[in-house]
Request: fold
Amino acid sequence: MKHMNSEVKEERTSNKKRIDLFLVPIVLIAAFLNLFKIWTDEYANAYYTAAVKSMLQSFHNFFYASFDPGGYVTIDKPPVVFWIQTISAKIFGFHGWSVILPQALTGIGSVLLLYVLVKRTFGVWAGRFAALAMALTPIVPAVSRTNNIDSMLVFTLLVATWMLFRAVRTAKFGWVLAAFAMIGVAFNMKMLQAYMVLPAFYVFYVVATKITWKKKISFLTTATVLMLAVSVSWAVVVDSTSADKRPYMGSSQTNSVLELAFGYNGINRLTGNTSVTGSSHKQPAQTQQQTASSETKQNSNSSADSSQSSNQRKSSSSQKMQAPGGGNQNGMFNTGNPGPFRLFQKGLSDQISWLLPFVIFSIVGLFAGVKFKGPYTTKQKESLFWLAWLLPVAVFFSIAGFFHQYYLIMLAPPIAAFAGAGAVALWSMYKQHNGWKSWLLPGGILTTAALQVYIMSPYVSSIGVAPIAGVGALGVILALVLAVHKQRKNSLTNYLGAAAMVVLLAMPAYWAMTPIIYGGNSMLPSAGPDSSSGMGGPPSTATNSKQSGFNGMQPPGSSSGNSSSNNQMQPPSGSSNGGQMPGGSSNNGQMQPPSGSSNSGEMQMPGGSSNNSQMPNSSSSKSSSSKRKSGGMNAEVNKKLLNYLTKNNTGEKYLFATTDSTSAAPYIIKTGEPVMAMGGFSGSDPILTVSKLKAMIKKGEVKYFYLSGMGKGGQSDVITWIKENSKEIPSSKWQSTSSSSQQGPSGNGTLYEITLK
Reply:
């Protein structure tokens, strides 16, 4: 027995030293998908990039994750990821790629971690296939190629998983503490989303450890207390700091991190209840019931315009889009309708669900014959861990009131783990002619191919019929041939099994490459032939899906002369974070025309100026620069406005003030000067009062204000006062009349000057 144990130890040591040559191309694939061409994204998600620019300027801004250099308001997330991005920008210089790089590297790191986690228990081929499945899950590289938080969040949770597995193997309590502390760190990346894995951690530790129940409860209680302490550490420091000595906590209604964590970034995501909690700012019931409509105007003189109009005609049915939880949420941001099959609906299935049927068959195979009372093998225990990660997260996304497509990356690790472990397990059952379980492999291949055909069918105009028919035909043929050869022992079945895995990963691999092929969107990352639109889902009827932009909608604040679409998005007046995009902002589920607007069909993009230019990557917004400025809606500046403000600045702290972050971010990125987003991200934060603004103007901190018809929620009194007590600056002095390469606050907005004595 001792001799056998020593041989096992020697084999493990040898395996640790030996490089897995099959892993090398998998890592190279992940590196290509995550890193290639990130240098073309100049601004990334401008909201977060502006914060990094601000955080580079002082420790005060760095600690609080201030959106603007003046320390007026923070971004709407905790600071850990942005601390790392700021350090990267400090080392490599401030660029779009330098703030994306940490997420891209952690995307690759997640592939390696999953390989390590799966290989040890399920075997090397299971680890390889799990790593490859993780690398090719479309939403994984789509998110990792941006400066959004989720890629680093998943990596951190996988590190915590590795620590937990090690705690069980070594029976050392220190590793349990480290695992739960790491979840606390993840909380300081994206708050309650980090806690979605807790059921898996608790269930696994209870089932897998061979200690008394008293010790289990004691250890888990202690670890949970530590996790909570780490989780709220930054929040407690911020909330206990006097409000006049720190920035306002962006997207909160009470200037509190804890309110932001457990409300807006927490329970409200599930319920879809994004109304303002402050009584003086609650959204009127009749406003909540307004519907969205889209009027289209076709311009036959422009191919881009005709592309927009074609797309708009498909979505102009005056479809009611109420707040999630309000009873009629019709796929806001292409997240489908809540229900048990939501993950198989358009817009979500092509991001994450390509292998879900195979995973379901794998789960059946891995748990076949398991008795409730045990005993459990190591494989069954770890399978239970991945199941306890997969099911609660899948249930959340099936019923949640508000989320974005890229949040689905939370499902990627358990799906990839089951794909790898299941492939080996089902193959073993098939080869051993293990009764009904031997049918799981061909059954999984057949149903997975069928789902992939369903996923691709809305994209036939973009990708053609051939790949759809090919996957369907090959899936059916391979499944049938495997079924026929089930009782035969020959080398053909080995090749058939390998071919089936290649077929099932072929289209996910293509989808994972679409952000490189078609261009991505850093505000709302998604994968697919329309990835540059950031809206996911099937493409429009436009001739070129790459030109469809934001489904025909345009970024705010441009003087591009093309306004034929008039298809702009606006948050409801007085709403809470209405119509916001990420960074992580809530949307009350409605898209409606601006309050008081003369154009009842006009919808504006969230957060600021009117929207009269194409999205980056659309045909009319390609500037002469080779860099892709996909920082959201308003990724460039109005140079004429910037020159005017710079020339006429007489020592004011803020270059200018505007309603929201969308208009402010490009100017912060370009100049590093403080620009005040009076109402935070969407313009709905109740930060500013008339008396506070008067005091700032009297102290000479700000005198110029750019106002559009947006972002009034929570600050309508301030905006009214500005208009009544200011001098309007003639547009000829600051408004650019050139092409869309001169973007920024202009168009339908107005520039005001106020000087109080």
